[in-house]
Amino acid sequence: MTKNFDAIVIGAGVIGISTAFHLAERGLKPVILERKEIGYGATGKSSGLVRMHYDLEVESRLAWESFQYFRDWSERVGGECGFRRTGFLHIETADHEVQLRKNVEMHQKIGIPASVISGGDVKKLAPHFKTDDIAFAAYEPESGYADPMLTANSLLAAAKDHGAIYVQDCEVSGSQSAGGKVTGLQTSRGSFSAPIIINAAGAWAGKVSELFGVSIPLGTWTHDVVHIRRPAQIADHLTVIDNSLNMYFRPDSGNLTLVALEDDSRLDEPAEKDLGYVAKDFVERAIDRICKRVPEMEQGSLHSSHVGRDSLTPDQRAIIGAAGPQGYFLATGFSGTGFKLSPAVGLCMSELILDGSAKTVDISGFDPMRFERGQHLKGENEYGSIWK
Ligand SMILES: Cc1cc2nc3c(=O)[nH]c(=O)nc-3n(C[C@H](O)[C@H](O)[C@H](O)COP(=O)(O)OP(=O)(O)OC[C@H]3O[C@@H](n4cnc5c(N)ncnc54)[C@H](O)[C@@H]3O)c2cc1C
What we know:
- This protein has 388 residues and is α/β, with parallel strands linked by helices.
- The protein has 2 domains: 3-45 and 149-218 and 315-370, FAD/NAD(P)-binding domain (3-Layer(bba) Sandwich), CATH 3.50.50.60; 86-142 and 219-308, D-Amino Acid Oxidase, Chain A, domain 2, CATH 3.30.9.
- The chain is 25% helix and 27% strand.
- It has helices spanning 14-25, 57-71, 73-76, 97-110, 119-125, 148-161, 205-210, 282-293, 342-355; strands at residues 3-4, 7-10, 30-33, 49-50, 84-85, 88-91, 115-118, 136-140, 144-145, 165-167, 172-178, 181-187, 190-193, 197-199, 219-229, 239-242, 247-252, 256-261, 266-267, 301-312, 319-322, 328-332.
- The strands form 4 sheets. Strands 6, 7, 8, 15, 16, 17, 18, 19 and 20 form a 9-stranded mixed sheet that branches. Strands 10-3-2-14-22-21 form a 6-stranded mixed sheet. Strands 1-13-12-11 form a 4-stranded mixed sheet, with no helix packed on it.
- A hairpin with a 2-residue loop joins strand 12 and strand 13.
- Helix 1 packs parallel to helix 6 (148-161).
- It starts with a strand and ends in a 33-residue tail after the last helix.
- The structure holds flavin-adenine dinucleotide.
């Protein structure tokens, strides 16, 4: 028997669940269909950085709107997201100083607490860091990180409180439409019908989109992460993107530090490929880099490593919007940076679907069809690709 809903969300990652939460808050009854279980995709492996520093204004705006959810989670969503304010540092190469200063100006105009600080200021904030190669950095005192699985679970609980339904072990395998409009879909657990369908299937969203006759240029990004136990003298530290060393790192609970590299990811592996283990030599390379920035980490010890995979687009920016049959929407392609944007993306999706356009942030630039027109999104003062 076909089950009827106001909207169907494909995929229980943070993007799909946030969209369902915001739709349910507006009074719709959405169903979230998940092939495996909540957080099975990128969300469950995410490093959880929450910062607003981007070189593309619309991404900073989405991050800033989202940040206010992370900061005020219990009032705005309920439950916990595990947000921890550590302060955030963005270190750029010397040849990007002009771009960094202009980007921080852009962030300040949005209202984001951000400033450009000197190498001396970095040393005061991060006494354990080696700073003799740092002349300037962007600093966000309010930023930090959150727990992606806590975030996804509390969004799901809140969505259910508002009437959303969650079905796991339910793989979407076919679509139904009539008169140019979506009407429903087939799954491993029967048929579901709704006039609105949102494809938030992460790295698998390209394959899912084919079911609706819509091709999107979606690749994958497979990313290794290591956790190191810090030596006792480093009690805590900032969350950092260090583009001069192609690395990011942040503290984690249990005296751990999470480290990952920007030039060490595997691009366009098949979404179905087993995640397996981190690349050969990755752990050694990551430890070598963190010790370059934080030399006392040499006295730390290896804790664990893991692999995650996200969807990736040709301009490393998301695909958000309507495409193909009426009622079909995409929210995917987050290219390794979607966690921190997810609260606002879900809100903007609900506005797009219910009001015809997003009011909170103008997301029209993420149009799924921009690639066909050759219109790649580029930062106004760009640093280039994040993932090399
Ligand atoms: C290792 C790693 C570190 C990251 N670090 C950060 C970070 O620090 N900060 C940040 O902002 N972002 C980060 N990201 C990116 C961020 O985690 C992702 O952009 C975000 O989680 C994507 O969420 P999603 O909901 O789009 O996709 P996913 O979480 O991948 O969810 C998609 C879901 O769709 C389901 N699905 C697929 N096909 C079907 C089907 N046919 N039927 C039903 N369900 C289906 C999948 O099982 C999956 O659960 C990181 C990503 C990774 C992998």
